[in-house]
Each structure stands twice: as C-alpha cells, then as structure tokens.
Amino acid sequence: MSDLTTNIETLNSHLNRFRDTGILNLIGGESRPAASGATFETSSPVDESTICAVAKGGSEDIDAAAAAAKAAFPAWRDMPALERKKILNRIADLIVERAEEIALCECWDTGQALRFMSKAALRGAENFRFFADKATSARDGQQLQSPTLMNVTTRVPIGPVGVITPWNTPFMLSTWKIAPALAAGCTVVHKPAEFSPLTARILAEIAHEAGLPPGVWNLVNGFGEDAGKALTEHPDIKAIAFVGESKTGSMIMKQGADTLKRVHFELGGKNPVVVFDDADLDRALDAAIFMIYSLNGERCTSSSRLLVQESIADGFEAKLIERVNNIKVGHPLDPATEVGPLIHKVHFDKVTSYFETAKQDGATIAVGGTRAGDQGWFVRPTLFTNATNDMTIAQEEIFGPVLTAIRFKDEDEALTLANDSQYGLTGYVWTNDLTRALRFTNHLEAGMIWVNSENVRHLPTPFGGVKASGIGRDGGDWSFEFYMEQKHVGFALGQHKIPRLGA
Description:
503 residues, six-stranded mixed β-sheet, alpha/beta, Aldehyde Dehydrogenase, Chain A, domain 1, 2 domains, Aldehyde Dehydrogenase, Chain A, domain 2
C-alpha cells in the first residue's frame, strides 16, 4: 500500500468524475437522475466534507427499476448457465482490475481503514468467482423413484429480487448478496445505504462493462422511507435480501407482508467471546481484540461481549488494556491506521452516548470513552470493565469500537451469560478442552460459532443467525435456497390405477 499522501492523490483522481456528474441511478442499463430531479449529498466521515451529489430515488424510480428487472428476467433466466458463469467471472476480473479504486473510495465513503478495505475489494471478486462456479449446478435436483412415478426435483429462480445493503462494508456485502442472485438466474434491484453510495455505483458499472444485459442489475439510490419502502412493497419484486438493523428488518417484513414477499435478513448481534482458563490466552487476546476493533467495530459479527473466567480475568484484562491503548486511530487511507472514523454524526452520537450509560450503570471505562481529534467522527477504542450482563452496554448493539468485559465463574454461568441476549449471530469459544467445546457449542444460541479462532469465513458454509439476528442463510447452496424455488415433477412409469369418479 502507498503512503497517505499518495493515496489521497489517487483517491481524488477517482472522485473527480463523481464531483462533476454526481452519482446517478442505473435503470435498464441507462444512467438516470431521480425522476423527481431530487438529490442529496454524501459526505466523508474523515473530515465531514461533501463528496458529491447523489440521485435521490423514490417510488417512481423503483417502479422503473422493477419494470426493467421484470422485463429482463425471462432472457436472463433462460440464458445457458455457462454464459452466466462467463459474465460473473468477467465481473470478478474487473473488480480485481479496479480493486485500488474500490478500496480507496470505500475508505473515504465509510471511514474504514485501508488495511481492511483492500482485502474486502478482493473478497468481492472471490464472491463472484465462487458463485460463477455454482451457476452451472444451481438448478440441480434429485431423482426420487416411487412404485408408480419417477419424481424429479429442480430449482428455478424466483424472479426479480430486491437487495438492500448497509454502509459498514458496502462493497463486499453487495457482492455477497448480488452474486448468488445473478448465478441463480434472478434479476436485481439494488438499493445501497444512502451513507455509502460510491462503490455501489462502481460495482454496477463493472457489471455493465462485463456484459450483463440491461435490466438484469438496476441501481436506485435513496432513503429507506422512500426508495426502500417502495422496493419492499413492490408487487413485481418477489424477495428482499436485507442487511442491517433488527428493527429495520422487522419493518421490512411488515411492508412485504401484503405481497407475501420472501425475506432474507442478516441483522444485528451482541456476540460473546468466551475465554476459559485453559485456553491459549495469547491467541484468545489477539482474536478478541481483532473481532471488536477491526472495521471500526462496525460489523455484525464483532465480539462485543468478552466473557472471561474469573481465575484469569485480572491478567487477561491488564494485557487487554495495554493493547487497546496502543491501537492506532487515524486517517483511513494511512496504511498504518487500525481504526478510522465512524460513518456519520448520528451514529457517532449513538456510540458515544454509551460512555455515559456505562458510568451510570456502574461499569468502569478502562480505556477510551472519548472522542479522538476535533474533526471527523473518530472515537478512541473503548473498553468497559467491571460490567455485568444486565447492563445496557451488554445488551444493546453499540456497533462501534467498544468492548464490554464480563467475568464468569464456571461453564454453566458462562453459557447462561452468553445466551442472555436477544441476538444470536456468532459466538467465539476459547478452550483446549475438546469435550467442553463440543458441549458448549451444542447449547450456545448462535447461528455461527468459532472455537479457538476469530471469524474465518469459508464460502461454502452457511452464514446467518438465530433469534433477532436474522432469517435465512447465505453461502454455498444455502444462498440458492433463498433466490430459487423448488419444483417437483412426477412422471408416470406406467399405467397405474387411477381412481374413477362418476364412472
């Protein structure tokens, strides 16, 4: 990675076109302003400066995008899977070619550190390659013979789908949702988060350049109450894939109910990392720090609750305090930066409000608990100690670089504390006792669990949560279960007896 000055110069060369034209919607293969002519401004959390104007889509734009997706669906559905595979692989190639542009724009748009976004851009290419390879088997089914019938199952794409993505790692998460939809044969209307529109536009341009037919992928920028609501209620949109807050997911479910819309939700988390006294404590420390302070703590899988056994808690917390104090907060385009600014002022105010809440609840602010610098939405990495699981800071998703440490006596108490949450996305367990690990993970209420590891994703495995953390699973064939319908056809093997009525 280049130095900060060079990165800023390169970024500006990529941003100039957006400053000139703004970010337009992409509907039916055409760049368009909002039908109303309205725009909004997107700004950088680094220095609060305006980046550019963005088309503010509404219901009329969603109508046009849904119509384009509906019109493009039959041809895209019927295109040979090998042809779809070629296009998806070409998208991956172009992502790699423009990885630097994507990473720099993502950092400036979201505040995420370059050390992570450079990898996230390439991960987006991996997502497209993985699902490109899956495209040729997406419709595979089973052959199930009965005494009188040869029963065949297959999968067919559900139709035009809506994809609503968040602002924390928008590029990678957009590829994670859109790549399997396209591989399945669905067409897409994508509404990215209004706070991070840059890389959504770049990704749509890449898809168009790769040869994706007009209307297969449509991009509409806007706000949830306008464009988002119109998308979730639209009768021609057969399913909604959403990544974001649990409350918003509940609202989307209600909005889609009248059209019986299928929904897939990747929602919030208050994920525990449980450290037993027999664990490799150095590795557990590294993982606990990485899983809450990387990506500015703005990640649904972050380990925001540290449950540490009493017998080792003093020493573990002392090392934790030392390490957290040394985390480098700075400009996201500086290769040395580990934590950048939060996404915007409203979120900054939310995260920092928990500092006073922690004091009122009786917790100790062992590290941080203050703003970093005078410009931008920077927060010092924060650690709460002397906390209990009933405190607000242990129950609510803060979604920032904030860790709450809670002590436990034994395995039973650890499990009770870990499960005492409305959420159930991930869990992290550190122990060298295999029997305990098997026993604990069997009863831990989470959709994904890692033992003696940080979150390491393997694309064929299912990704998703339980309780208020989501509905459905991504990854491998689990993605196709959402974007496709199962179809059964029974072929008579002979002339079996058919009941005769009225004969």
